[in-house]
Amino acid sequence: MASITYDKATRRYPGAERPAVDALDLEIADGEFLVLVGPSGCGKSTSLRMLAGLEDIDDGAVWIGDRDVTQLPPRSRDIAMVFQNYALYPHMTVAQNMGFALKIAGRPASEIKQKVLEAAKLLDIVDYLDRKPKALSGGQRQRVAMGRAIVREPQVFLMDEPLSNLDAKLRVSTRTQIAALQRRLGVTTVYVTHDQVEAMTMGDRVAVLSDGLLQQCDTPRALYDKPANAFVAGFIGSPAMNLVTAKLTADGAELGGGSVALTREVIAAADGDTVTLGFRPESLEVVSEGPDSVPIKVDLVEELGSDAYVYGKLAETDAEGTKSNVVARVDPRTPPAMGDTVHLRIRPDELHVFSATTGARLP
Ligand SMILES: Nc1ncnc2c1ncn2[C@@H]1O[C@H](COP(=O)(O)OP(=O)(O)OP(=O)(O)O)[C@@H](O)[C@H]1O
Ligand SMILES: [Mg+2]
């Protein structure tokens, strides 16, 4: 087992204008489950492949434990990778697939057999050891791919969207199994996904990437409660946080026909005369019209049983001249109707304020 350090690690693909991964600084503790998350093309797989040795590192370094592995070939890095398309050998049985790396390494047959059996028990696939991959379901193949990584007893597991071939229900149960298994084995793991729910439920910490740049790396709770910038704020959470540009006033900001109070520090820290206000759907409450209420015209009500979400627009234009969309969670027993105007109040300690120019969180 080992810690992992990315030290200003950069990857520039030949001919590309900007680095795919730009001066990535990240420290992952021994035994930690770290999730890399971000939209398509943000550099998740490239970051993982740099760690695996499958991609050159053009600047900076990558360390595994106390070894600088920047120049080491993949086979010398002591890692095991699980890919999206399990890449099982079709002509081999499950047991042969799982034991293949050990066989190549010249380990005795008895040891291979024992390690494969141990891993198979852990993954509950003992009954399938003699089958070929084509005779397995997607979820079972996924577990075989995990088993193949486990038997190698590597210092580090790398997983690139290993659940994306599974249907929604199986994905939920398998992600719980993987997280539990990782905790039991205690092997440092870097896990890539574009699904923020997967990231939030599985990771000890979650690193959010955008355009090759690390935005924030923190516990799921901290990412949710204190996003470092408007990108993270909008990316983490479902339905997404409402983000609206608002004009500053002497003691707050104007918001679509209502007003919200801001502290003096926030107003002083703002650059320019507007800020970006962020508030989650669950941070809004329906109130009667008042000085700090914001009128919203209801477009659609989504009733989910336990919750109801109101999708609407600000009744008046915001600082950018648009009637921004707003989503609010409301009491499912008394939802408003389409076309209604409701007055919403943002719970004051649940308001996030970001610079309208840089997106950075204001104090
Ligand atoms: N071999 C390559 N040559 C040139 N450019 C590449 C190569 N691989 C990836 N890129 C580019 O580098 C950027 C990052 O790609 P990467 O595969 O790391 O993204 P990702 O975050 O894994 O995306 P996804 O969620 O779609 O898998 C993208 O703009 C991509 O087009
Ligand atoms: Mg990828």
From TrEMBL:
Q: PROSITE patterns, per this entry?
A: ABC_TRANSPORTER_1, ABC_TRANSPORTER_2
- The residue range of the signal peptide is none
Q: Which GO CC terms are listed, alphabetically?
A: ATP-binding cassette (ABC) transporter complex, substrate-binding subunit-containing
Alphabetized GO MF terms: ABC-type transporter activity; ATP binding; ATP hydrolysis activity
Q: Give the UniProt keywords, A-Z.
A: ATP-binding, Nucleotide-binding, Transport
Top-level division of the source organism's lineage: Bacteria
Which GO biological-process labels does this protein carry?
Answer: carbohydrate transport
Boundaries of each ABC transporter domain copy? 4-236
NCBIfam families to which the protein is assigned, alphabetical: PRK11650.1 (NF008653)
Query: Can you say what this protein is called?
Result: Sugar ABC transporter ATP-binding protein
Organism (species): Amycolatopsis rifamycinica
